[in-house]
Amino acid sequence: MEVTKEIAEQYLLQMYQIRVFEEQAEKSYMAGKIHGTMHLSIGQEASAVGSVSALGPKDLILSTHRGHGHCIAKGADLKLMMAEFYGKANGYCRGRGGSMHIADVASGNLGANGVVGGGIPMAVGVGLGLKMQNEGKILLSFFGDGAASTGAFHESMTLSVLYQVPVVYVCENNQYAMSFPSNKWTTSEGLASFAACYGMPGKSVDGNDLLAVLEATEEAVEHVRNGNGPALVVCDTYRWRGHSKSDRNRYRSQEEIDAWKEKDPIERFKNHMIEKKTLTIDDIEKIKAQADADIENARLFAESSPDPDVSTLEEGVYAPW
Predict the structure, then answer these.
(1) I need a surface site. Which of 5, 86, 211, 241 has the fewest CB within 10 A?
(2) How far apart are CA 10 and CA 267, in angstroms?
(3) What is the structure's pLDDT at 24?
(4) 8 Å CB contact between 69 and 241
């Protein structure tokens, strides 16, 4: 797949923004500036950017607890996103959502979900609504390999085909459901084969190859947009960090982590663009510097933003009388 210099710059900038955002998130957490927990997707940047880039501006996404990358790929305002991560009053969800529940409805991000597989049945409902609206919009619904073993996944697949909803399901197989390795029960190809059981197309793809993810998702998007019902794409990728910040990461070896780091999606895309003479080393350095500056500005904005006033605690919880 060939891409223009402008598009290549956009893809690389978004991947760098995702990584730098999460590296800063980790630093802020370790410095005691963030409460609660978070789930980092460092190492999965190509899956997020490649799949979301297949959508149109009016299309929608539903994310997961590991959703920072999806949010950025869908065009989030980094300052408002960082403010929400910090729990600030001017964040996307007024500081109520935090890391696991960031939503940006205006840009088409319907939100993340803290329940494993929780977004999959939501996608059926959203997809049914989109079908009834008949405006040509489709939904991209993310979930992980662990969610593919839940009843919610299988029930939702059945209903998705029954109602022919305009949804592309994207399974990010990052090799572990918390501490349980996915290869103990399936493979990426095995996950993709679930689609045939329910009567929809399914495809497994190298999730660390942005252009391969983009191509596979574009095929699925075309299938769905033409009114043929849902489709499934499985991205084979890897998270470099533990499941969450409370994960001591004792269930896998450093050798395994290092082996996957050799497949760094950012380095692969960067080197491919240099080889194709689409981008130069100077172009790439400027893009990385811009990402660094973008995230630093977002951090400064968040840390200087106000905390929610305690008097507003019940707003959005109870309906007014």
Answers:
(1) 5
(2) 15
(3) 98
(4) no
At residue 314 the predicted structure's pLDDT band, cuts being 50, 70 and 90, is confident
Q: Is the Cα dihedral 210, 93, 168, 191 positive or negative?
A: positive
Strand ranges of the sheet holding 60-62, from the earlier edge strand across to the other edge: 60-62, 139-144, 167-173, 231-236, 202-206
Pair of tokens at residue 290: 């811009």
Instruction: Say if residues 50 and 212 touch (Cβ distance below 8 Å).
Output: yes
Give the pairing type, strands 202-206 and 231-236: parallel
Residue 106 CB: number of other CB atoms within 10 A? 10
Strands 176-177 and 167-173: unpaired
| Closest listed residue to residue 211, CA positions, set 283, 294, 270, 282 | 270
Hey, what are 59's tokens?
Answer: 């299309």
How long, in residues, is the chain?
321
- Average of per-residue pLDDT across 4-16: 98
Q: Are 165 and 130 in contact (CB under 8 A)?
A: yes
- As a whole number of angstroms, the distance between CA 200 and CA 190 comes to 14
* Chain segment 166-218, per-residue pLDDT in tens: 999 999 999 999 999 999 999 999 999 999 999 999 999 999 999 999 999 99
Q: Do the beta carbons of residue 11 and residue 53 sit within 8 Å? A: yes
Residue 112 exposed, middle or buried by CB count within 10 Å (0-12, 13-18, 19+): buried
Question: Is-contact 70 53, C-beta < 8 A?
Answer: no
* Band of residue 295 on the pLDDT scale cut at 50, 70, 90: very high
Q: What is the pLDDT of residue 273?
A: 98
Q: For residue 28, is pLDDT > 80?
A: yes
With b for 16 or more beta-carbon neighbours within 10 A and e for fewer, the 127-155 pattern comes to: bbebbeeeeebbbbbbbbbbbbbbebbbe
What pTM value is reported for the model?
A: 0.96
Relative to beta strand 60-62, strand 139-144 is: parallel
Structural domains present in the chain: 5-303 (3.40.50.970)
